[in-house]
Write a structure and sequence with these properties.
Blueprint lengths: L21 E6 L3 E6 L4 E5 L17 E6 L3 E6 L4 E5 L17 E6 L3 E6 L4 E5 L17 E6 L3 E6 L4 E5 L17 E6 L3 E6 L4 E5 L17 E6 L3 E6 L4 E5 L17 E6 L4 E6 L4 E5 L6
Antiparallel strand pairs: 1-2, 2-3, 4-5, 5-6, 7-8, 8-9, 10-11, 11-12, 13-14, 14-15, 16-17, 17-18, 19-20, 20-21
Length: 298
């Protein structure tokens, strides 16, 4: 059963009989795609956003994983190849790189482009050039890639030596030159809509990208020690420290200001975030503390 705006994928009545044994569901802005137990895929919603996969339905066999931009889907098949559909300009058409998409292990997405890590740890990108779909400038650096993270318009790849390579829109994190010397021994990267935060081996954090979206952590730099985990909304980060306390930064309206609940944030085990505006922390006693945009916390 689905609910919400029918125009945005909330009405699945046309495919309801097919939605049996669903293993995974992925979504663009206005469409859904479900992997079934037999490895086939059912899609519904706005056709231009990937809601119609009729053109590639016969190719969607043995699907292992699906990733989505805002307007297109990419499915990894059991043989490591990839099938795409949706907006052709923003990830739905991968024909230009089809011969390169072999042995794909993982796919990450910005709002309008995809990046695939291959078995040899190299990377193939496609989709909107301004959204990270064009990685030509850093292609020679994308070797030994272990993980990729994405903002709305940029990608960041952690290499096997713990360094980081970025590309895409500079103001959204695609340009990390200002902090390149600090990006050593990176263990994990998290992203808001326009900024990245990297946890280093010593538990410190390096940030870059849009300052208002968490790219500037200078105000809390001295507090970011012993960081275990970072979570993000669309415009702010929240880090759990080794002592179970939390440090937040970024846009206040997106959860970047946790001062009102600071004394309650003790023994934090896990943090979850809404897509844009608010955080919820689970404490050791099983209680929950929330902060962020007030209208979402009523």
């Amino acid at each position: 059963m689905t609910w919400g705006s029918a125009y945005c994928g909330g009405d699945s009545s046309a495919v309801q009989d097919q939605l049996k044994g669903v293993q995974q569901i992925q979504a663009t802005h206005k469409a859904f795609a479900a992997i079934l137990a037999d490895g086939s895929v059912v899609a519904w919603g706005v056709a231009d956003f990937g809601g119609d996969n009729a053109a590639v339905r016969d190719q969607l066999k043995g699907v292992q994983q699906i990733q989505a931009t805002g307007v297109a889907f990419a499915a990894i098949l059991v043989d490591g190849s990839v099938v795409t559909w949706g907006d052709e300009d923003y990830g739905g058409d991968s024909s230009a790189v089809r011969d390169q998409l072999k042995g794909v292990q993982q796919i990450q997405a910005t709002d309008q482009a995809f990046a695939a890590i291959l078995a040899d740890a190299s990377v193939v990108t496609w989709g909107g050039a301004d959204f990270g779909g064009d990685s030509l400038a850093v292609r020679d650096q994308l070797r030994g890639v272990q993980q990729i993270q994405a903002t709305d318009k940029a990608f960041a790849a952690i290499l096997e030596d713990g360094s980081v390579v970025t590309w895409g829109a500079a103001k959204s994190g695609g340009d990390s030159s200002a902090v390149r010397g600090q990006l050593r021994g990176v263990h994990q990267i998290q992203a808001t809509a326009a900024a990245f935060a990297a946890i280093l081996a010593d538990g410190s954090v390096v940030t870059w990208g849009n300052a208002d979206a968490g790219g500037d952590s200078s105000a809390v730099r001295d507090q970011l020690r012993g960081v275990e985990q970072i979570q993000a909304t669309g415009g702010a980060f929240a880090a759990i420290l080794a002592d179970g306390s939390v440090v937040a930064w970024g846009h206040a309206d997106y959860g970047g200001d946790s001062s009102a609940v600071r004394d309650e944030l003790k023994g934090v085990q896990q943090i979850q975030a809404t897509l844009f505006y608010a955080f919820a922390a689970i404490l050791a006693d099983g209680s929950v503390v929330t902060w962020g945009h007030a209208d979402l916390l009523l």
